[in-house]
Specification:
This protein has one helix and three strands, in the order βββα. By secondary structure, it is of the alpha+beta class. The chain has a single domain, classed as Double Stranded RNA Binding Domain (2-Layer Sandwich), CATH 3.30.160. The longest helix is centred in the middle third of the chain and has 21 residues. The chain is extended, with a radius of gyration of 17 Å.
Length: 79
């Protein structure tokens, strides 16, 4: 059995809960009402994604760790 590890992003949804994406797996989006549910849904979605690419005899994507950085921008106030 192979084990895969991916970076996922949890973003608060406007209607509540969390939307989950995985930068390494294009098109993978899922959600959950709680962080725990969102995490479980992400695991299930990743499992399904990998099974799908393997079934199509495509390579399983490797994780791409996003770089997170804050950029501060100063903008002059209008006169």
């Amino acid at each position: 059995m192979a084990e895969y590890s991916y970076t996922v992003l949890f973003e608060p949804a406007e209607e509540g809960g969390f939307v989950v994406t995985c930068p390494a797996l294009p098109g993978l989006v899922t959600e959950g009402d709680t962080i725990e549910e969102a995490r479980a849904m992400a695991e299930d979605a990743i499992r399904g994604y990998i099974e799908s690419v393997r079934k199509d005899h495509l390579p399983v994507p490797s994780d791409k760790v996003p770089v997170k950085e804050e950029i501060h921008v100063l903008i002059p106030e209008p006169a």
